[in-house]
Amino acid sequence: MSPTLLPAKQMWSAIGSMALCVAMLIASEFMPVSLLTPIAADLNATDGMAGQAISISGLFAVLTSLLIAPIAGRYDRRHVLLAMTVLMLVSLVLIASAANFSLLMVARALLGMAVGGFWALSTATVIQLVPKAMVARALGMIYMGNAVATAFAAPIGAYLGAIVGWRAIFWGLVPLVLLNLVWQLRAMPSMPPKAGIPVSRVFALLKRRHVAFGMTAVMLTFSGMFATFTYLRPFLETRTGVSASQLSLLLLGLGLAGFLGTKLASKLLEKEKLFPMLRWLPLVIAALTLSLVWLGGRLESAAALMIAWGLVFSAIPVCWSAWLAHAMGDDAESGGGLMVAAIQLSIMLGGAVGGLLVDQITIVASFLFGSAMLVLASMVIGPGFRLGRHPAQPETID
């Protein structure tokens, strides 16, 4: 169906259902960050092992994001997106009822498939649903779902998890996903299959020098951030000595700062500051991470640093989305799959290496590793010439 022929009410309802699905996916994927300690204790695992639950979802998100375009090209896009939502639903039921760590990992793998598949198709789906002039607004609604989940999922999970237990938190997400599935069934129009995109076309983008450098920087940046983000709860519990209520407030502060970070990043992008932001934000978050190691023993210092950390953390994905439009605007669907794969692989590696360091050395070692990756990312980016910015051109994303 042509976007211009879709009734406005149904069009925005479909976008709304996608935004809610994104919120549920993000909440489900990163909820273990706020529940890491009780999950580990209940399943007789270490904190580092529990952190691998985030890593395994990243692995399957990588595989799915790379393979979904060729598969989705054979089927109605509506059915593919609904299948991703069903996968999320099944994974939540399995997580909530997991009797052992192995079943938890299987459930997280299914969730990773849903995350990778949905995100890889989201931009192309929006373009198919709405007129070109409204694409930016529609994408903004979807990213708002991301921001809402980032702001509220972790603190609510930490607070309620201490009252009703971590399993009840995941059971609580099940009816919300069911409602989302019903909404999608009613709102999503049929989107007939088109010619599939071969996997070779996705990887062919890496032959472009600026894309190869960009993806390297993406992986260094996100692996560095998630080597820290994944283990914030055990750090705050052991180093800062926070209670459950204090932990939820700190995570809420981090999440709410994300709204401001997203807005500030958008404003700076409008002023054509893309490449300076890509270069300097990783250094800022590395400095904040090291400051947290040094000053995080005091609650007041930890709170201030967490807010600042959340501010920068939320701005970085916005900048890389803008770079995607700048660097691969001629093949956004393939580029989107490649970007999702790179980010999810980075989440997996950051969480996995961080988990090993937490178990074998200390949490501080994981934070130091993350900071080193962020510094390397900034070095790879440099002034931006390697990422496609011509020395003689202004810093524009167009």
UniProtKB/TrEMBL annotation:
Organism: Gallaecimonas pentaromativorans
Record's keyword annotation contains Transmembrane: yes
Domain of life: Bacteria
UniProt name for this protein: Transcriptional regulator
Location within or outside the cell: Cell membrane
Entries under SUPFAM superfamilies matching the protein: MFS general substrate transporter
Source organism phylogeny: Bacteria, Pseudomonadati, Pseudomonadota, Gammaproteobacteria, Enterobacterales
Domain Major facilitator superfamily (MFS) profile as annotated: residue spans: 1-389
An example molecular function term from Gene Ontology annotations: transmembrane transporter activity
Keyword annotations: Cell membrane, Membrane, Transmembrane, Transmembrane helix
CDD domains for the chain: MFS_NepI_like
GO cellular component: plasma membrane
Bilayer topology: Multi-pass membrane protein
